Here is the input.
Amino acid sequence: MTAKIGIDRHQMRYHPKQEVERLRQYGSIFWSNLNQRWLIVEQKLALDVLRDDKFHLPPYSNSVGSLEKITGEDLGQLQALSMFIPFLHNGIYHKSIREVLTKILVEIQPRYYQLLPEVVDDLIHDLLKNGSGDFAEEFSYRLHMATLSKVIGMPASSVEIINPMLTSENLNYNNSVSEFVNTELRLRVAFAEMKKLVNENEDIRAFHERVGRYLVDADLEDTFNNRIFAMMAVMIIGRDTIAGAISLSLHEAFEQFGDRIDGDQLASLDTKARELLRLTSPVNIIEREASEPRKVGDQAIAAGERVLVVIRAVNTDPAVYGCPHQLTEASKENDGFVFGSGIHTCIGRNLALEALRVSFQKISQLRAIHRFGEVTMGTGRNTQSVDRMTMKVEI
Here is the structure.
Protein backbone atom coordinates (compact mmCIF):
# COMPACT_ATOMS: atom_id res chain seq x y z
CA MET A 1 0.00 0.00 0.00
CA THR A 2 1.34 3.45 -0.93
CA ALA A 3 2.16 5.60 2.11
CA LYS A 4 -0.06 8.61 2.63
CA ILE A 5 2.22 11.64 2.37
CA GLY A 6 0.87 14.97 3.58
CA ILE A 7 0.17 17.24 6.52
CA ASP A 8 -0.66 15.57 9.83
CA ARG A 9 -2.91 18.27 11.27
CA HIS A 10 -2.64 17.02 14.86
CA GLN A 11 1.15 17.05 14.67
CA MET A 12 1.17 20.48 13.02
CA ARG A 13 -1.05 21.76 15.82
CA TYR A 14 0.86 20.36 18.80
CA HIS A 15 4.35 19.58 17.45
CA PRO A 16 4.87 21.91 14.47
CA LYS A 17 8.68 21.82 14.48
CA GLN A 18 8.79 18.05 14.19
CA GLU A 19 6.04 18.03 11.56
CA VAL A 20 7.80 20.66 9.46
CA GLU A 21 11.06 18.71 9.59
CA ARG A 22 9.20 15.55 8.55
CA LEU A 23 7.65 17.33 5.56
CA ARG A 24 11.01 18.70 4.44
CA GLN A 25 12.41 15.22 3.88
CA TYR A 26 10.20 15.02 0.76
CA GLY A 27 11.74 18.14 -0.80
CA SER A 28 10.95 21.84 -1.24
CA ILE A 29 7.83 21.05 -3.27
CA PHE A 30 6.19 17.63 -3.50
CA TRP A 31 2.86 15.99 -4.29
CA SER A 32 0.74 15.08 -1.27
CA ASN A 33 -1.50 12.12 -2.01
CA LEU A 34 -3.14 12.74 1.36
CA ASN A 35 -4.04 16.38 0.65
CA GLN A 36 -4.25 15.97 -3.15
CA ARG A 37 -2.21 19.15 -3.46
CA TRP A 38 1.37 20.19 -4.13
CA LEU A 39 2.94 21.16 -0.80
CA ILE A 40 5.50 23.98 -0.69
CA VAL A 41 7.86 24.23 2.29
CA GLU A 42 10.48 26.65 0.92
CA GLN A 43 10.21 30.42 1.15
CA LYS A 44 11.52 31.26 -2.33
CA LEU A 45 9.04 28.91 -4.04
CA ALA A 46 6.23 30.24 -1.85
CA LEU A 47 6.99 33.81 -2.90
CA ASP A 48 7.11 32.75 -6.55
CA VAL A 49 3.62 31.24 -6.29
CA LEU A 50 2.04 34.15 -4.43
CA ARG A 51 3.50 36.69 -6.85
CA ASP A 52 2.32 34.74 -9.89
CA ASP A 53 -1.06 36.06 -11.07
CA LYS A 54 -1.72 32.73 -12.79
CA PHE A 55 -2.17 31.15 -9.37
CA HIS A 56 -5.66 32.08 -8.15
CA LEU A 57 -7.71 31.35 -5.08
CA PRO A 58 -9.65 28.14 -5.74
CA PRO A 59 -13.27 28.72 -6.83
CA TYR A 60 -15.72 29.13 -3.99
CA SER A 61 -17.67 25.94 -3.28
CA ASN A 62 -21.34 26.44 -2.44
CA SER A 63 -21.51 23.60 0.05
CA VAL A 64 -23.80 25.58 2.33
CA GLY A 65 -26.63 25.14 -0.18
CA SER A 66 -26.04 21.39 -0.18
CA LEU A 67 -26.08 21.36 3.60
CA GLU A 68 -29.44 23.11 3.62
CA LYS A 69 -30.89 20.24 1.59
CA ILE A 70 -29.30 17.60 3.83
CA THR A 71 -30.23 19.14 7.19
CA GLY A 72 -33.43 21.01 6.39
CA GLU A 73 -31.92 23.97 8.28
CA ASP A 74 -32.10 27.55 7.02
CA LEU A 75 -28.41 28.42 6.66
CA GLY A 76 -28.97 31.63 4.75
CA GLN A 77 -27.10 33.79 7.23
CA LEU A 78 -24.11 31.45 7.20
CA GLN A 79 -24.13 31.46 3.39
CA ALA A 80 -24.20 35.25 3.28
CA LEU A 81 -21.55 35.72 5.95
CA SER A 82 -19.26 33.11 4.40
CA MET A 83 -19.16 35.23 1.24
CA PHE A 84 -17.44 37.94 3.30
CA ILE A 85 -14.72 35.63 4.65
CA PRO A 86 -11.80 36.15 2.24
CA PHE A 87 -10.56 32.55 2.52
CA LEU A 88 -13.51 31.17 0.59
CA HIS A 89 -13.96 32.71 -2.86
CA ASN A 90 -12.72 32.87 -6.38
CA GLY A 91 -10.09 35.47 -7.20
CA ILE A 92 -12.38 38.19 -8.57
CA TYR A 93 -14.80 38.18 -5.66
CA HIS A 94 -11.90 37.81 -3.24
CA LYS A 95 -10.35 41.00 -4.62
CA SER A 96 -13.60 42.95 -4.16
CA ILE A 97 -14.08 41.72 -0.60
CA ARG A 98 -10.48 42.59 0.25
CA GLU A 99 -11.09 46.10 -1.09
CA VAL A 100 -14.05 46.57 1.26
CA LEU A 101 -12.32 45.10 4.31
CA THR A 102 -9.15 47.08 3.60
CA LYS A 103 -11.12 50.34 3.60
CA ILE A 104 -12.69 49.39 6.93
CA LEU A 105 -9.25 48.62 8.39
CA VAL A 106 -7.77 51.87 7.07
CA GLU A 107 -10.61 53.79 8.70
CA ILE A 108 -10.27 52.16 12.12
CA GLN A 109 -6.47 51.86 12.27
CA PRO A 110 -5.44 55.27 13.76
CA ARG A 111 -7.93 55.09 16.63
CA TYR A 112 -7.26 51.36 17.06
CA TYR A 113 -3.54 52.02 17.54
CA GLN A 114 -4.29 54.84 19.96
CA LEU A 115 -6.54 52.67 22.14
CA LEU A 116 -4.48 49.46 22.15
CA PRO A 117 -2.23 50.35 25.14
CA GLU A 118 -5.24 51.21 27.29
CA VAL A 119 -7.09 48.01 26.37
CA VAL A 120 -4.01 45.83 26.97
CA ASP A 121 -3.52 47.48 30.38
CA ASP A 122 -7.13 46.70 31.30
CA LEU A 123 -6.84 43.04 30.28
CA ILE A 124 -3.56 42.59 32.16
CA HIS A 125 -5.14 44.28 35.18
CA ASP A 126 -7.94 41.70 35.10
CA LEU A 127 -5.37 38.88 35.05
CA LEU A 128 -3.51 40.47 37.97
CA LYS A 129 -6.72 40.96 39.91
CA ASN A 130 -7.52 37.27 39.68
CA GLY A 131 -3.92 36.17 40.27
CA SER A 132 -4.14 33.61 37.48
CA GLY A 133 -6.37 32.73 34.58
CA ASP A 134 -6.73 31.36 31.08
CA PHE A 135 -4.64 33.66 28.91
CA ALA A 136 -6.52 32.66 25.76
CA GLU A 137 -10.02 33.31 27.10
CA GLU A 138 -9.21 36.33 29.27
CA PHE A 139 -6.70 38.11 27.05
CA SER A 140 -5.95 36.99 23.48
CA TYR A 141 -9.54 36.21 22.40
CA ARG A 142 -10.81 39.45 23.97
CA LEU A 143 -8.23 41.94 22.74
CA HIS A 144 -9.48 42.65 19.20
CA MET A 145 -13.14 43.10 20.04
CA ALA A 146 -12.34 45.07 23.20
CA THR A 147 -10.35 47.51 21.05
CA LEU A 148 -12.60 47.57 17.98
CA SER A 149 -15.71 48.14 20.09
CA LYS A 150 -14.20 51.33 21.53
CA VAL A 151 -13.29 52.52 18.04
CA ILE A 152 -16.80 52.11 16.59
CA GLY A 153 -18.79 52.90 19.76
CA MET A 154 -20.10 49.42 20.60
CA PRO A 155 -21.29 49.10 24.22
CA ALA A 156 -19.47 46.61 26.47
CA SER A 157 -22.69 44.67 27.07
CA SER A 158 -22.94 43.89 23.34
CA VAL A 159 -19.28 42.87 23.17
CA GLU A 160 -19.95 40.26 25.88
CA ILE A 161 -22.74 38.82 23.71
CA ILE A 162 -21.01 38.97 20.32
CA ASN A 163 -17.38 38.06 21.04
CA PRO A 164 -17.95 34.41 22.13
CA MET A 165 -20.07 33.85 19.01
CA LEU A 166 -17.30 34.85 16.60
CA THR A 167 -15.05 32.19 15.09
CA SER A 168 -13.58 31.39 11.69
CA GLU A 169 -12.90 27.85 12.87
CA ASN A 170 -15.93 26.20 11.25
CA LEU A 171 -16.32 28.48 8.26
CA ASN A 172 -14.88 25.98 5.81
CA TYR A 173 -16.64 23.75 3.32
CA ASN A 174 -14.70 20.66 4.43
CA ASN A 175 -16.35 20.62 7.85
CA SER A 176 -19.13 18.34 9.02
CA VAL A 177 -22.84 19.17 8.93
CA SER A 178 -23.00 19.40 12.72
CA GLU A 179 -20.17 21.96 12.78
CA PHE A 180 -21.91 24.11 10.19
CA VAL A 181 -25.22 24.00 12.04
CA ASN A 182 -23.49 24.79 15.32
CA THR A 183 -21.75 27.73 13.72
CA GLU A 184 -25.00 28.96 12.23
CA LEU A 185 -26.71 29.01 15.61
CA ARG A 186 -23.88 31.08 17.06
CA LEU A 187 -23.86 33.46 14.13
CA ARG A 188 -27.58 34.05 14.52
CA VAL A 189 -26.93 35.41 18.00
CA ALA A 190 -24.13 37.71 16.83
CA PHE A 191 -26.10 38.87 13.78
CA ALA A 192 -29.21 39.63 15.84
CA GLU A 193 -27.19 41.73 18.29
CA MET A 194 -25.49 43.63 15.46
CA LYS A 195 -28.85 44.31 13.80
CA LYS A 196 -30.20 45.61 17.10
CA LEU A 197 -27.17 47.88 17.54
CA VAL A 198 -27.48 49.36 14.05
CA ASN A 199 -31.11 50.23 14.75
CA GLU A 200 -30.52 51.63 18.24
CA ASN A 201 -26.95 53.00 18.41
CA GLU A 202 -26.12 56.18 16.51
CA ASP A 203 -22.35 55.50 16.32
CA ILE A 204 -22.83 51.95 15.03
CA ARG A 205 -25.43 53.16 12.53
CA ALA A 206 -22.99 55.76 11.16
CA PHE A 207 -20.29 53.10 10.81
CA HIS A 208 -22.82 50.81 9.11
CA GLU A 209 -23.58 53.55 6.56
CA ARG A 210 -19.89 54.09 5.78
CA VAL A 211 -19.47 50.36 5.17
CA GLY A 212 -22.32 50.65 2.66
CA ARG A 213 -20.33 53.21 0.69
CA TYR A 214 -17.34 50.86 0.64
CA LEU A 215 -19.55 48.10 -0.79
CA VAL A 216 -20.79 50.41 -3.54
CA ASP A 217 -17.22 51.49 -4.38
CA ALA A 218 -16.27 47.81 -4.80
CA ASP A 219 -19.31 47.10 -7.03
CA LEU A 220 -20.80 44.76 -4.43
CA GLU A 221 -24.46 44.66 -3.49
CA ASP A 222 -25.18 47.21 -0.77
CA THR A 223 -27.90 45.90 1.54
CA PHE A 224 -28.59 46.32 5.24
CA ASN A 225 -27.47 42.75 5.92
CA ASN A 226 -24.39 42.87 3.69
CA ARG A 227 -23.10 45.85 5.64
CA ILE A 228 -23.42 43.85 8.87
CA PHE A 229 -21.75 40.82 7.28
CA ALA A 230 -18.77 42.96 6.20
CA MET A 231 -18.50 44.36 9.74
CA MET A 232 -18.69 40.85 11.19
CA ALA A 233 -15.98 39.61 8.81
CA VAL A 234 -13.57 42.20 10.24
CA MET A 235 -14.57 41.09 13.73
CA ILE A 236 -14.21 37.36 13.04
CA ILE A 237 -10.92 37.38 11.15
CA GLY A 238 -9.39 40.10 13.31
CA ARG A 239 -10.32 38.29 16.51
CA ASP A 240 -8.93 34.93 15.42
CA THR A 241 -5.79 36.21 13.68
CA ILE A 242 -4.78 38.49 16.56
CA ALA A 243 -5.64 35.86 19.16
CA GLY A 244 -3.49 33.37 17.28
CA ALA A 245 -0.58 35.77 16.87
CA ILE A 246 -0.46 36.60 20.58
CA SER A 247 -1.29 33.24 22.15
CA LEU A 248 0.95 31.18 19.86
CA SER A 249 3.84 33.62 20.28
CA LEU A 250 3.61 33.58 24.07
CA HIS A 251 3.30 29.78 24.03
CA GLU A 252 6.48 29.62 21.91
CA ALA A 253 8.25 31.90 24.40
CA PHE A 254 7.34 29.48 27.20
CA GLU A 255 8.58 26.58 25.07
CA GLN A 256 11.96 28.26 24.67
CA PHE A 257 12.38 29.83 28.13
CA GLY A 258 10.55 27.26 30.26
CA ASP A 259 7.31 27.44 32.26
CA ARG A 260 8.52 30.52 34.15
CA ILE A 261 9.67 33.61 32.29
CA ASP A 262 11.28 36.17 34.60
CA GLY A 263 11.67 39.91 34.22
CA ASP A 264 14.98 39.87 32.34
CA GLN A 265 13.60 37.47 29.75
CA LEU A 266 10.29 39.33 29.56
CA ALA A 267 12.13 42.56 28.77
CA SER A 268 13.29 41.06 25.47
CA LEU A 269 9.87 39.85 24.34
CA ASP A 270 8.65 43.11 22.85
CA THR A 271 11.80 43.42 20.71
CA LYS A 272 11.43 39.79 19.60
CA ALA A 273 7.73 39.96 18.83
CA ARG A 274 8.22 39.57 15.07
CA GLU A 275 10.57 36.64 15.61
CA LEU A 276 7.99 34.89 17.79
CA LEU A 277 5.38 35.49 15.12
CA ARG A 278 7.71 34.08 12.45
CA LEU A 279 8.02 30.85 14.44
CA THR A 280 4.31 30.45 15.04
CA SER A 281 2.22 32.26 12.38
CA PRO A 282 -1.53 31.96 13.08
CA VAL A 283 -2.16 31.39 9.36
CA ASN A 284 -1.58 27.68 8.72
CA ILE A 285 -1.65 27.42 4.94
CA ILE A 286 -2.31 29.47 1.82
CA GLU A 287 -4.00 27.65 -1.06
CA ARG A 288 -3.81 28.53 -4.75
CA GLU A 289 -4.96 26.92 -8.01
CA ALA A 290 -3.05 27.13 -11.31
CA SER A 291 -5.19 28.71 -14.04
CA GLU A 292 -2.78 27.43 -16.71
CA PRO A 293 0.32 25.20 -16.78
CA ARG A 294 3.03 26.68 -14.54
CA LYS A 295 6.47 25.81 -13.26
CA VAL A 296 7.45 26.22 -9.60
CA GLY A 297 11.17 25.70 -9.25
CA ASP A 298 11.82 22.60 -11.34
CA GLN A 299 8.32 21.24 -10.78
CA ALA A 300 5.68 21.45 -13.52
CA ILE A 301 2.18 22.26 -12.25
CA ALA A 302 -0.75 21.40 -14.52
CA ALA A 303 -3.69 23.75 -15.03
CA GLY A 304 -6.28 23.11 -12.34
CA GLU A 305 -3.83 21.61 -9.87
CA ARG A 306 -3.64 23.19 -6.43
CA VAL A 307 -0.71 24.10 -4.20
CA LEU A 308 -0.58 24.55 -0.43
CA VAL A 309 2.01 26.97 0.93
CA VAL A 310 2.82 25.64 4.41
CA ILE A 311 3.41 28.87 6.34
CA ARG A 312 5.07 27.27 9.40
CA ALA A 313 7.63 25.66 7.07
CA VAL A 314 8.19 28.78 4.97
CA ASN A 315 8.75 30.83 8.14
CA THR A 316 11.46 28.40 9.29
CA ASP A 317 13.13 27.66 5.96
CA PRO A 318 16.77 26.74 6.79
CA ALA A 319 17.87 28.31 3.49
CA VAL A 320 16.73 31.67 4.87
CA TYR A 321 17.19 31.47 8.63
CA GLY A 322 20.39 30.56 10.41
CA CYS A 323 18.52 29.14 13.41
CA PRO A 324 15.13 28.27 11.89
CA HIS A 325 13.49 27.04 15.10
CA GLN A 326 15.22 29.28 17.63
CA LEU A 327 14.20 32.64 19.03
CA THR A 328 17.00 34.97 17.92
CA GLU A 329 17.51 38.71 17.86
CA ALA A 330 15.45 40.40 15.19
CA SER A 331 17.32 41.18 11.98
CA LYS A 332 16.52 42.11 8.41
CA GLU A 333 16.94 38.48 7.39
CA ASN A 334 14.51 37.38 10.09
CA ASP A 335 11.81 39.88 9.18
CA GLY A 336 9.75 36.89 8.25
CA PHE A 337 7.13 35.66 5.84
CA VAL A 338 4.50 35.63 8.59
CA PHE A 339 1.05 36.04 6.99
CA GLY A 340 2.06 35.59 3.38
CA SER A 341 3.78 37.90 0.94
CA GLY A 342 3.33 39.05 -2.62
CA ILE A 343 -0.01 40.02 -4.14
CA HIS A 344 -2.06 38.42 -1.36
CA THR A 345 -0.44 39.82 1.79
CA CYS A 346 -2.77 39.66 4.79
CA ILE A 347 -4.70 42.93 4.86
CA GLY A 348 -4.85 42.88 8.66
CA ARG A 349 -1.14 42.25 9.12
CA ASN A 350 -0.32 45.73 10.45
CA LEU A 351 -3.09 45.58 13.04
CA ALA A 352 -1.99 42.13 14.20
CA LEU A 353 1.67 43.11 14.44
CA GLU A 354 0.85 46.24 16.44
CA ALA A 355 -1.41 44.26 18.79
CA LEU A 356 1.41 41.76 19.30
CA ARG A 357 4.03 44.47 19.86
CA VAL A 358 1.95 46.43 22.39
CA SER A 359 0.89 43.27 24.23
CA PHE A 360 4.47 42.08 24.69
CA GLN A 361 5.61 45.59 25.59
CA LYS A 362 3.09 45.65 28.43
CA ILE A 363 3.68 42.04 29.49
CA SER A 364 7.43 42.77 29.65
CA GLN A 365 6.77 45.24 32.47
CA LEU A 366 5.65 42.41 34.76
CA ARG A 367 8.06 40.72 37.18
CA ALA A 368 7.40 37.22 35.87
CA ILE A 369 4.78 35.01 34.25
CA HIS A 370 4.16 31.30 34.88
CA ARG A 371 2.50 28.71 32.69
CA PHE A 372 0.96 25.66 34.31
CA GLY A 373 -1.45 22.88 33.44
CA GLU A 374 -2.28 21.49 30.03
CA VAL A 375 -2.13 23.70 26.95
CA THR A 376 -4.95 23.11 24.44
CA MET A 377 -4.52 24.14 20.83
CA GLY A 378 -7.38 25.31 18.63
CA THR A 379 -8.73 23.12 15.85
CA GLY A 380 -9.17 25.82 13.20
CA ARG A 381 -8.23 25.08 9.61
CA ASN A 382 -7.89 28.67 8.46
CA THR A 383 -6.22 30.15 11.52
CA GLN A 384 -4.44 28.56 14.46
CA SER A 385 -4.41 29.67 18.10
CA VAL A 386 -4.07 28.47 21.67
CA ASP A 387 -7.52 27.66 23.05
CA ARG A 388 -6.43 27.27 26.66
CA MET A 389 -3.23 28.24 28.52
CA THR A 390 -3.46 28.83 32.26
CA MET A 391 -1.07 31.52 33.43
CA LYS A 392 -0.07 33.23 36.67
CA VAL A 393 1.43 36.72 36.71
CA GLU A 394 3.73 38.48 39.18
CA ILE A 395 4.25 42.22 39.61
Summary: Residues 271 and 283 are 22 Å apart (CA to CA). The mean pLDDT is 87.
